[in-house]
Amino acid sequence: MTLATKSALALVLAAALLAAGCAAPAAKRGAAASGVVPSDVPAAGRLHGYVVARRHGDFSLAGGKERRYEVEYGWDYDQATALRKTFDANGTLLKTQRLNGAEFPLTEAERERVRALMRGQPALKPIVDRPGVVIWAGGFAYQKRDDPYCGRGSRCIHAIAAADDGDTAVAHAIVDLQTDRVVYPFYQPAEGEPVGKIHGE
Predict the structure, then answer these.
(1) Closest by CA position to 107, among listed 57, 171, 177
(2) Higher-confidence residue: 2 or 54?
(3) DSSP string of 146-195?
(4) How far apart are CA 92 and CA 95, in angstroms?
(5) Structural domain includes residue 157
């Protein structure tokens, strides 16, 4: 191997090592830049699969004949999308449609996961653990197209922690059930200071 070849090889190795050394810090910076602190809750409680939100009967008229069917709405956590399913009177699936910006109520399992994520979020824990504080997680969907956390494919919910057995709001938070995390622990629903924020911390 000539001296020129050795020099060229050394330069290639040095460049490769430099690239590898820069890659890890870049990934760490990206993770830290998100600013989302994970909740201290068991991962086993994370929601998966298709969850039915509501179902109702409907009908249509064709050629003077009434046709009965069932319409179902739900969220698919594996596909990160809202779905509308149509079944005939015998329960056979006729059609599945993806929905954008759909808003429908949470199941009890979803509400409980919102509560658990809020209770396990380090900044919220000292607030929601106080006696007399309850968490309202009825399913106020929060979705904004340009939001880094609550855009398309998110299942963001606006939850409220309230003291005095639920009468006085002490914290608003946005929880994304799709990514299983509290993305805005101190959501500010109006002008002024964020509700529930402990100043000076």
Answers:
(1) 177
(2) 54
(3) T-SSSSTT--EEEEEEEEGGGTEEEEEEEEETTTTEEEETT---SSSSPT
(4) 9
(5) yes
Q: Which domain holds residue 85?
A: 50-99
pLDDT of residue 28: 27
Q: What six digits make up the tokens of 60?
A: 């249509």
- 133 and 148 share one domain: yes
Query: Are 158 and 117 within one domain?
Result: yes
Q: How many domains does the chain have?
A: 2
Q: What is the CATH number of the domain that holds 178?
A: 3.10.450
Domain membership flag for residue 7: no
Whether the Cβ atoms of residue 123 and residue 185 lie closer than 8 Å to each other: yes
C-alpha distances in Å from residue 159, one per residue of 53, 59, 96, 154: 18, 35, 29, 15
Do 170 and 115 share a structural domain? yes
The structure's pTM equals: 0.74
Token pair 């007399």: residue: 132
- Which residues fall within 8 angstroms of residue 150, CB to CB, at 6 or more apart? 142, 143, 144, 156, 174, 176, 183
Residue 155 pLDDT exceeds 50:
yes
